[in-house]
Design brief:
alpha/beta, two-stranded antiparallel sheet, elongated, F-box_dom, 16-stranded mixed β-sheet, F-box domain-containing protein
Length: about 350
């Protein structure tokens, strides 16, 4: 390799002017090159990286690094295109992989290619390489944008699904199969308008830690009855006050939502009837002369590239409800089109003492 003919300071200068994608490509060349990169000043650049994202799209899976608010693609993983004849092989530890260089959007990008039956092993090899390179210092996210191919089960991988079905009818059987074969999802972000059937009550869909949906009907999917995760944000077109009341009463009785921390239920058409809801759920009221504490928690999931707020929306409310089984309480805020519900890690007595 010509780079090794130069003094170490010159090597560093050359590496300093390389993009992340070039550095990764060089690191595949040999163990010696990988050690050079790891021992150089480049590791200071890598320290700003706190997440690596696999963005799974129709044209392949892009491995990208969110830097300064923008995802920087460093590798594309795609099925081999036999019409191209410019492939070359590199040794990603344990496996020889066919690469080619593509040029799109004024940028050269290495493309790791696979035959149809080799996809899983190639993805695993690249992931193992990244784990070896970065270790536990970063979080590894897989973002699926369809439900054709299940998310792989890989070490330290955080599985996420982003889905927009505003144009196509949602294939519930295939989606259920996708979710059942994938790891338990960390996040689901779905715009759902053409759902023809509910998820099964025992679906892994409801085990997702964070769900954000925009949906036509309150029970498609039926998050307000079956959610088992920690945080959710639900926008509903066709509002049904009964679903919100049933949700709160199920939490109060201890029958459901034992892991719930925070949920927003926003209606698109109409407005909440605040007094009717508060009466139906048996809400308690804080003395207006006191200042209620604000409920806020770290987000279970956020897009590391674009979401700069690490916390849930704050809830400061004079109304709350109490869970019968353990006397834990939750702040309730009803304003216009929005219903906020935040569970405290305190009993009612502990909560009230905070205002003394």
């Amino acid at each position: 390799m010509q780079l090794f003919k130069y003094p170490y300071l010159v090597q560093n200068e050359i590496l300093d002017n390389m993009k992340f994608s070039d550095l990764f490509m060089f690191s595949f060349v040999s163990k010696r090159m990988k050690k050079l990169i790891e021992s150089s000043s480049q590791m200071q650049r890598f320290k700003i990286i706190n997440a690596i994202k696999y963005d799974h799209l129709d044209e392949g899976t892009f491995v990208c690094i969110p830097v300064h608010g923008f995802p920087d693609n460093v590798i594309q993983i795609a099925e081999r295109d036999d019409t191209e004849n410019d492939y070359f092989q590199l040794n990603v530890p344990g496996k020889m992989i066919d690469f080619r260089i593509s040029y799109e959007d004024n940028k050269y990008l290495p493309v790791a290619s696979y035959q149809p039956d080799e996809r899983e092993t190639l993805v695993a090899s690249i992931h193992d390489y990244l784990l070896d390179f970065f270790g536990d210092s970063v979080e590894y996210y897989w973002h699926a944008h369809d439900y054709e191919t299940p998310i792989p089960h890989l070490q330290n991988l955080i599985a996420c699904l982003e889905l927009n079905t505003s144009e196509d009818i949602l294939d519930m059987e295939n989606l259920e199969n996708f979710i059942s074969l994938s790891p338990v999802l960390k996040s689901i972000d779905m715009y759902i308008s053409n759902v023809t059937a509910p998820f099964s009550q025992g679906s892994k869909f409801y085990q997702t830690e964070y769900i954000q949906t925009c949906q036509e009907e309150p029970n498609l999917p039926d998050i307000l009855h079956h959610f088992q995760g920690r945080q959710a944000s639900v926008e509903i077109v066709r509002y049904n006050i009964g679903h919100v009341i049933e949700f709160v009463n199920a939490w109060k009785s201890g029958e459901a939502f034992d892991k719930l921390e925070h949920i927003i239920i926003e209606i698109i058409l109409g407005r909440y009837r605040e007094n009717e809801i508060l009466h139906a759920i048996g809400a308690k009221h804080i003395d207006s002369a006191k200042k209620p504490p604000t409920h806020v928690l770290p987000k279970v999931y956020r897009d590391m590239a674009f979401d700069k707020d690490p916390n849930t929306d704050p809830i400061t409310s004079y109304t709350y409800v109490v869970r019968e089984t353990d006397n834990r309480m939750a702040s309730v805020l009803v304003q216009g089109r929005r219903f906020d519900f935040g569970v405290w890690d305190k009993t009612e007595e502990e909560f009230l003492r905070m205002m003394e």
